[in-house]
């Protein structure tokens, strides 16, 4: 049967993720070491798991309020105030979602009308552009570059703004580059945003994973920017809770209310046990100064430094990423494309990395290497990458 | 001693893998090679780091060996408390570890020998005959599941997707 008539051509036309091909390839290799994993290698801290177990034992198996457990929204509000100087009322400015992913989808669907343009820094996380298309909008790539540590500058933004531009997605700390936006960078951007009457979707899922004594700054904490920003965050990266699927979105009550309309009709509520676990994570964090996060961040930081110094030791150009858990070295000096390099790396050395161009055309010439992997495995992977680079230089291997 | 941030980082790293070369330790902590070497040297001199030794799963080898944990009740000695008898006990080659414990007994002694007979003879002829020892209870180790944070039953599987966005 031909199903063309039954499928939405706009959705069919969206290309599959560039990661897919590598996923299929890497999955067939049993003993490959993967630097392609976009989630923590820690397990959720035990006290958090325990809270969810206890809630199950106690029979807490019902729906929660659409917007999420009131206690959780209160903790989220207090957490954002304490950590990032953001002020959101738990009652009407916080919506708990199924991971940050649902939050992104809700924001796009609630805000976009057909033909609205959305600025998306390139390279960045693979879901934004498809999400914009699913919501009827038009994604507009804003190339960033390594020369500026993949920060988003006003001169990147300005040429892409048109009368149809409605929204800017601001994904920092950035996946895949590890780049961050510091306060001064955001302050340079804010007037451009205000002048062109744009809204900002600030995806801050990696906010807790910022290194080298730096601290994440939310654009919503800048004077006058809170009303122009919806902040998206969640528990996946900071608390190693990817599989629980709990995130949240915060913003003006007028916006959150409409997002909640979609959420209540399509989702009802985020899973209760995930919310209970999230509540435990924040409550305990407030009491012990977020010890869980500090321990994991310190561990990531050591591995981050190892990766940067090792790649530089191989003669690759590698800018220092201060956020997330990725390094984004340039493999341009090998003369290979990102895809060829990654294919060769997988085939010859059984190490999986993700080609930079899977995250947008500006990622060409780079590879994304996650360091959320055990230290002994990282060391083996780094040795193998160094071997491959030598072999490429001596023309012993080719794609 | 109060540990500095660098000392803490180095101890954590060496605990995980004591064969990490200096250049990697230095890269990971952000301290220079000289400083890294100096700090490790100091930790060794101060006896914070006592030895670098592997965690071995003897069960996979043909080496004959028995281990036991012995709860020992002793009479503390005047002025010396438990230290004197603990010292007597830890000097035996068979003894791997000695701990002073709270609770219903005083010392916990971890003993290793080649055979059951050897171990029994250690308890009956060496340990129990010490005059301050008033009683012992020996429990043999049947199987080791986890030691020093390392799980012995194969590698824990990574449940994550091989590649994810």
CATH architecture of the largest domain in chain A: 3-Layer(aba) Sandwich
Looking across the biggest beta sheet of chain B, what order are the strands in?
Answer: 2-3-1-4
What's the shape of chain B? extended
Helix content of chain B: 25-40%
The count of DSSP E runs of length 2 or more, i.e. the number of strands of chain B, is 6
Oligomer state equals heterodimer
Shape of chain A: globular
Main sheet attributes: strand count, strand direction, barrel closure of chain A: 7 strands, mixed
Uncertain runs of chain B with pLDDT below 50, 5 residues or more? none
Terminal Cα span of chain B: 44 Å
Our measurement of the CA-to-CA distance between the termini of chain A, rounded to an integer number of angstroms, reads: 39 Å
Within the largest sheet of chain A, what's the order of strands? Answer: 2-8-7-6-5-3-4
Q: CATH class of the largest domain in chain A, please?
A: Alpha Beta
User: What is the average per-residue confidence, as pLDDT of chain A, rounded to a whole number?
Assistant: 96
Overall residue-averaged pLDDT value of chain B: 93
Class derived from helix and strand content of chain A: alpha/beta
Number of helices of chain B: 5
Chain pair forming the biggest interface: A-B, 31 and 18 residues
Helix share of residues of chain A?
A: 40-55%
Specify the structural class of chain B. alpha+beta
What keyword list fits this structure?
heterodimer, A: 399 residues, alpha/beta, Aspartate Aminotransferase, domain 1, Aspartate Aminotransferase, domain 2, 2 domains, three-stranded antiparallel β-sheet, globular, B: 165 residues, alpha+beta, Arc Repressor Mutant, subunit A, Alpha-Beta Plaits, four-stranded antiparallel β-sheet, extended
């Amino acid at each position: 049967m031909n199903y063309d008539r039954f499928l939405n051509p706009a959705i069919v036309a969206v290309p599959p993720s560039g990661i897919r091909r590598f996923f299929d390839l890497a999955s067939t290799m049993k003993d490959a070491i993967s630097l392609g994993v976009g989630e923590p290698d820690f397990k959720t801290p035990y006290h958090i798991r325990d809270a969810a177990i206890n809630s199950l034992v106690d029979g807490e198996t019902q729906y929660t309020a659409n917007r999420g457990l009131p206690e959780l929204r209160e903790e989220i509000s207090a957490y954002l105030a304490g950590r990032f100087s953001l002020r959101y009322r738990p009652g009407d400015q916080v919506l708990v979602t199924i991971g940050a992913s649902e939050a992104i989808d809700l924001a796009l669907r609630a805000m976009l009308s057909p033909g609205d343009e959305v600025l998306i820094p390139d390279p960045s996380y693979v879901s934004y552009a498809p999400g914009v298309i699913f919501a009827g909008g038009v994604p507009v790539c804003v190339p960033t570059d390594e020369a500026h540590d993949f920060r988003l500058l006003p001169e990147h933004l300005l040429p892409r703004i048109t009368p149809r531009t409605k929204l800017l997605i601001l994904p920092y700390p950035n996946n895949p580059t590890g780049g961050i936006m510091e306060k001064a960078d955001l302050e340079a951007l804010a007037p451009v945003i205000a002048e062109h009457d744009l809204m900002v979707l600030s995806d801050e899922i990696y906010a807790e994973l910022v290194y080298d004594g730096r601290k994440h700054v939310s654009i919503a904490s800048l004077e006058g920017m809170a009303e122009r920003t919806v902040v998206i965050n969640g528990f996946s990266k900071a608390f190693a809770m990817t599989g629980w699927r709990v995130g949240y979105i915060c913003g003006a009550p007028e916006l959150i209310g409409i997002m909640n309309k979609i959420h209540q009709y399509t989702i009802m509520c985020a899973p209760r046990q995930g919310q209970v676990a999230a509540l435990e994570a924040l409550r305990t964090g407030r009491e012990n100064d977020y010890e869980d996060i500090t321990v994991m961040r310190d561990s990531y930081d050591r591995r981050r430094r190892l990766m940067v110094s090792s790649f530089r030791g191989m003669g690759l150009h590698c800018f220092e990423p201060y956020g997330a858990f990725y390094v984004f070295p340039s493999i341009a000096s090998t003369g290979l494309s990102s895809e060829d390099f990654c294919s060769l790396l997988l085939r010859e050395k059984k190490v999986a990395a993700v080609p930079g161009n899977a995250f947008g055309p500006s990622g060409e010439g780079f590879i994304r290497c996650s360091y959320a992997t055990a230290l002994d495995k990282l060391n083996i992977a780094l040795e193998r990458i160094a071997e491959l680079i030598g072999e490429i230089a001596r023309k012993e291997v080719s794609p | 001693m109060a540990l500095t941030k660098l000392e803490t980082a180095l101890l954590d790293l060496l605990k995980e893998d004591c064969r990490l070369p200096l250049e990697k330790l230095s890269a990971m902590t952000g301290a220079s090679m000289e400083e890294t070497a100096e700090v490790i040297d100091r930790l060794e001199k101060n006896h914070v780091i006592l030895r670098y030794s592997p965690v071995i799963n003897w069960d996979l080898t043909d080496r004959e060996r028995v281990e036991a944990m012995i709860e020992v009740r002793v009479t503390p000695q005047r002025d010396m408390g438990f230290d004197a008898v603990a010292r007597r006990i830890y000097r035996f080659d068979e003894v791997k570890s000695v701990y002073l414990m709270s609770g219903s007994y005083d010392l916990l002694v971890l003993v290793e020998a080649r055979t059951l007979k050897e171990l029994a003879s250690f308890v009956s002829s060496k340990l129990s005959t010490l005059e301050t020892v008033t009683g012992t209870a020996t429990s043999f180790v049947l199987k080791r599941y986890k030691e020093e944070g390392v799980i012995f039953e194969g590698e824990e599987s990574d449940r994550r997707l091989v590649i994810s966005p």
